[in-house]
Design a protein that fits this description.
CATH architecture of the largest domain: Beta Barrel
Number of domains: 2
CATH class of the largest domain: Mainly Beta
Number of helices: 5
Largest sheet: 22 strands, antiparallel, barrel
CATH superfamily of the largest domain: TonB-dependent receptor, beta-barrel domain
Low-confidence stretches: 3-25, 106-113, 589-593
Length: 777
Amino acid sequence: MNRLKRLVFIPILSSFLAHGGSLQAQSYNVYGYVKYKGSEEGIPYAYCINLNNRGITYTNHEGFFSLKSNGPTTLMFGYVGCQPDTVTISSLKDTLLTIYLNPHELEEVVVAYREKLHMQTILGKIAVPVSKIESSPTFAGVPDILKSLTYLPGITNGKEGFSHLYVRGGTSGQNLFLIDDAPLFTTNHALGLVSSINTEAIGNIDLYKGGFPARYGNCSSSILDIRMREGSRSEHEYKVEIGTLTAGATIGGPIVKGKTSYMVAARTTYFDVINIPKRIKYLDDLEYQLALQNDGISMISLNAFDINAKLSHQRTQNSKQYLNVFSSNDFYSAYNKSQGSDDNSGFNHHNLLVSAGSRRNYSASLFVSTSAAYSLYSNTFFNELIYKDERDEHNKSSDQAKISYLSVKSSADYYFSSKMHYKFGVDVSAYAATPNIEQEIAKSASGTLRDTTYGQNFIFRAIHISSYVECEYKPFVKTSINIGLRASTFMDQGNEYIKLDPRVSYKTMLSEKTSIKTSYTLNHQFTHLLLSNFKGNPKEVWILSNHRVKPQEVHQIAAGFFGSGHHLDYGIEGFYKKMYNLVEYRFSGVGQNTGNIYDRISSDGQGEAYGVEFLCEKNSGKIRGTLAYTISWSERSFRDINQGKPFPFTYDHRHVLTLTSSITIQKGWEVSSSFRFMSGQAFTLTDGYFAGNESFESHNLYSTINGYRLPPYHRMDVMLTHEWTSEKGSLKHFRLSIYNAYNRRNASYAHVNPSSGKLVLTSIFGIIPTISYGIAF
């Protein structure tokens, strides 16, 4: 551990020694906060321009900024969608400022981006505007952050309709979703129709596809860092939205005016309304009996609910505390009743996140954040079968998995000089994972036939300690470097891994509006996600690294050219990724009586992904849009899968082309559309079936993995939005959205018909129109 400490702190010490003389004695600090006028909420990543030397800096995620000056200074503060403000500093001493920016209605529509892509040092970072998500066509009548992200280059969503992300050839389990510093272990919600992240509760979104800063760990594909918004400290706000299949409400406002505020956002589905006609019909006993005698009675029940709540308190001008709670629950049941049997199967998913923290600037140069977080994800899949014939049996089975996370972390921003900005911190976290508890119970009139439980003794625990240092260094006016090192120790029961992750991003400005960037990152991930299928629905199981499963190791290099001009922002970026210690279920049976999931997996997987991404955006004017194209390759290899031969990753789409547009017809009226084209998904055809025996489980037989391709996928969605203000001052909107506007029957699954021997393609979604109405007051 002494060696580890030296490796972490040597970069900090050497940087201080090398650049300590760059500070001049007469320099002074200008620091403070940039906030929205009225709500008192800090504006993350607002810009601050020194009009004397054209130097630019940005606020952090709390709206805090700090810069150094050597004489009288004029500063201009701004954020897209706000009226800029200019301040002149004449006193040559440390000065604390609170800048209030007034949101105003622009004559020209502008999507509220923060930094231009060519200005950011980090390669692969995208600041995602909430306004753009809200203007995108919807699937279930509500804006969806994850589905919107899939229109960016290098990102796909896997199966149609599901809320997964696959970034640059990585798996969905390699993504890190953070909600106010707490990790979210699953994003699938309401059968994937919407993600579990409510857009109404979001304040700020940062997406990283590469160039990962050292402050992030335990991820290897992407990072989605979400900060939930706070309630206004000056006035109460209410919003209600009702859609075709979902409804939601958001409330917020001051508890102590100017000091303490709250925000609560909740959503629910009402899919069960589709069962109302059947339930009314079966109130008639004759209809009920006829249905039992013919095809039987079937009911599908789906209930999904989520809630976000945030409490924030501004104790002093320099200190703020918050408490954030998120919970979601999904229940699905497919019930079939006939004269001979009753069959009920389904699942229950549950998420719970709690985080609390404190933010404080201790001086003009030091800003410290401390937080504690807890996260829990559990899922239970069940099946119940009752035979009403001479067997008179009642069979029940269930399979449960869960993972929990508890952490305490502290991080700091240190503004060392006008050229150097440090970030450093420590994180201590504990994991507990129960991958599978399987239970089978069979009873009859004569007594219990079977009552077995597997896996209840396999609870895996681990401690994860990490520290990092990160430096944003500007050696020259046109050059900036983000360099960092992350050190991690992961200790399970009797095993220890010590890993170092170096990260570096480099940017140089070729001109005022163009830049080139490069990056290299090494990421180690100590948690692994296993995905399987339960009657068409994804079943997610998390496991921890131990003596049998090594941490995932992913190297990524990338380079790109970025620019801005003629109202366009554009960029082209190439990447190469090499992955080690990947985990996957085996494609062959294992002993039935082992309750240890580690006996069912292969953990020596390697992966390779590379490609080129192109992005062009127009974010102002009456016509706005995005064009994105990705050409990429991704493959996997496991020693005991596919005879050790490499095979394409399931979501290896060679070509992905997306196009989005928003057109303001007139004030209050907007038409938006999105189009997607993808090469066909790779899939595996079964060659046979092994029924199983006392030693081995039943399983399908395969000759090659992902050796076939589904037909190309393409789809267009459109949405009409009308916004207006009522006579009482309430802001209202109406949305009409059409998913899959030209009713393309895209194939999601394929199998061979055993009778004809022909390939059968199955599609899920055709054209789906939805409407929603909302009011804010």
